[in-house]
Amino acid sequence: MTYALDHVDWALLHELQLDARLSFAELARRIHMSTPAVAERVRRLEQHGVITGYHAQVSLEATGWPVRALVRMACHGPTCLLRDPSVYEWPEVLEVNRVTGAECCVVKIAATSMAAFEDVIDRLAAYGTPSSMLVLSTPLERSPIVPPHPTPSSAG
User: How far is CA 27 from the centre of its chain?
Assistant: First the structure.
């Protein structure tokens, strides 16, 4: 069941997506509410699973992981990568998305070098057929979630 968000919730989410380290007092100042009211709203958003965590955005390059890639995996059946959650713990695996189409998943990878990336591809091959795309740059790292606009069929 989806939690119904109002304009105040969206204002809080907007500010927190820009800077999750804002204090309740600063959030309150920015959206023109009292600090206790903001604290209660944020707690409610956390309890309903709207806010799922607070994270530091870390530079892969600055931390020694300059090689990034997206790897499409064509694997099915008992050897499918999705059946082995230990892969999710590999330090190179940043994200795993189950997808539609000929591939079962897309894996976001970071590696310390091309040789290390080649090693990851070799390890992934035990699960199926990997097909990789190296990331040259990321013009948009992440985009804030905004309120969905009603479609013409749902607008009254």
Answer: 24
Kindly state whether residues 74 and 127 are assigned to the same domain: yes
Determine the average pLDDT of the residues in 69-98. 96
**For residue 98, what is the domain's CATH number?**
3.30.70.920
Please indicate, yes or no, whether residues 78 and 122 belong to a single structural domain of this protein.
yes
Please say if the pLDDT value at position 153 is more than 70: no
Q: What does the DSSP assignment read for 22-52?
A: --HHHHHHHHT--HHHHHHHHHHHHHTTSS-
Please check whether residues 73 and 31 belong to one and the same domain: no
**Lowest mean pLDDT across 15-29, 41-55, 87-101, 135-149:** 135-149
* Locus of tokens 């820009």: 18
